[in-house]
Amino acid sequence: MEVVPARARAYVACAVLGALCCVLPLPETHTPWWAVALLAAVYAGCEQAAARWRFAGTFYPVLLAGAFLLPPPAAALVPLPGALLSRVEQRPYALRRIWRAAQLVLAVWAAGRVHWALGGRDAVVGSDFPYALVPAGAAVLVFCLVLTVLDGGILALAERVPVRRAWRGLFVRSLAPVAVHGLAGLMMAVLWRSPYGPVAALLVLLPMCVSWWVFAQYHRERAAHQATIRALVQAVDIKDGYTRGHSERVGQASMMIARELGMDDQRVEVLRFAGILHDVGKLGVPTRLLRKDGPLTPEERRVIELHPEYGHEMVRGIGFLGEARAAVLHHHERLDGSGYPYGLMGSQIPESARVVAVADAFDAMTSTRSYRRARPVAAALEELERCAGAQFDPRMVTALVRALGHQGWHPAVTADEERERGREREQGEGQGLGHEREVPAPSAVGRSGVRR
Predict the structure, then answer these.
(1) What average pLDDT does the segment 333-357 reach?
(2) Under CATH, what is the fold of the domain 220-421?
(3) Among 105, 94, 104, 106, which Cα is nearest to 1's?
(4) Among 345, 344, 370, 356, which residue's Cα sits nearest to residue 424?
């Protein structure tokens, strides 16, 4: 977003004008300005702590407590200092801060209006439970809806995300965490209006801050693992330059298959990692074999066929990968038992490995290599369907066909085209399904035993 399109700037300007309309005219004179200042200072402090912990997120309980306690225009002022002083990772810094401030002002104002319209202020003051949950719940829904609508719009305009994808799943993914923050905000508001006063209300934040810090630590650890994965993939790309970018595309295709099969988001992410890391074992294969121009000898083939085991050893200590480790080990197994390294058959092959096998073969066929040009997507899918049941799981092939029908595929050239034009390969070499410079066991596909 360093170069922000004009339409995105106009969108931000409209949000800023809307935010100004929310806070102007200023709230009535009986507004407890000390409460506005205290909540704004607490929220700004939480934002600074989040920046120090490098946690991506916003501490919504303070904002929602403001919506439950204050008149809507006053509540809309609470996020301003924290948003305008927040840490921003990317340029343009000022525009991002202004956008975030306007977004939060609009969301808090809308939540406050709904809460007050439903009699939430009287319910909070009188601790009228369970009725107090009704206006608070409605306010949380509106707060989440405004945020997701604005987020989707900026994604579509600034990041050029297709409109149909910009809002997909945003509200559902955001609702649960915002609802939890809303309950904490309601607890703060009730205690604030109780004889215990604001000090007791602020104590509600302590357990929330601890859990937030633990969650931040988890994300930091996960980010470290992902950085390790990226480093491994980059090392593979450097070692075998002919297949640069292949791992990321296999991860993308694996994710498409998993989603089409109806897997939950966590498992989809694991299978994406499986696709990205499936060839990491190549780091244990001599570079001269990966880059050899001529046919491989039987001994050289046996060395290359060890790469799934090498890869499994490399990733076995990364705990969050889960079943991705099995995919790294078994993605060259075949349903008829002719694959490697263990010759597993049918359901003996882990489901994750069957997903990655299809994704791997598809990208290998639709990407240009030094020894052959890319096949059209339709031809690659036809070959996958021909080999379904013998080499590939038919369910995975069907899922990929359906996913590509919805989303399409745009394969990239991964070979060094200058070297490609300077070489001529034997006719028929690389005609079967396969995976770069790897040799599958003899089957209906690739009986000639040539490298792919």
Answers:
(1) 94
(2) Hypothetical protein af1432 (1.10.3210)
(3) 94
(4) 370
CA distances 118 to 108, 146, 147, 252, 307, Å, are 16, 18, 21, 46, 64
| Tokens 């704004």, located at residue | 40
Q: 3-19, pLDDT tens digit by residue?
A: 778 888 999 999 999 99
Is the preceding peptide bond at 92 cis, omega within 30 degrees of 0?
Answer: yes
Residue 17 DSSP label: H
pTM of the model: 0.56
* Chain segment 198-213, per-residue pLDDT in tens: 888 888 877 777 776 7
SS3 388: strand
Name residue, tokens 């021909």: 386
CB-count burial class (<10 Å; 0-12, 13-18, 19+) for 290: buried
What pLDDT was estimated at residue 138?
95
Closest C-alpha to 75, from 188, 164, 160, 151: 188
- What does 190-251 look like in DSSP terms, one character per residue? HHHHSTTHHHHHHHTHHHHHHHHHHHHHHHHHHHHHHHHHHHHHHHHHHHTGGGTTHHHHHH
C-alpha 56/C-alpha 201 separation (Å) is: 25
Grade residue 197 by pLDDT with cuts at 50, 70 and 90: confident
**Which of 324, 356, 323, 353 has its CA nearest to residue 250?**
356
Runs of H (alpha helix) within 408-450 = 417-421
Nearest CA to 40 out of 74, 3, 8 is that of: 74
Spell out the domain ranges in the chain.
Answer: 6-203, 220-421
Q: Choose among 124, 86, 98, 82: nearest CA to 8.
A: 98
pLDDT at 417 over 70: no
Q: Is the pLDDT of residue 256 over 90?
A: yes
Other C-beta atoms closer than 10 Å to the C-beta of 40 total 19
Residue 446 confidence (pLDDT) above 80: no
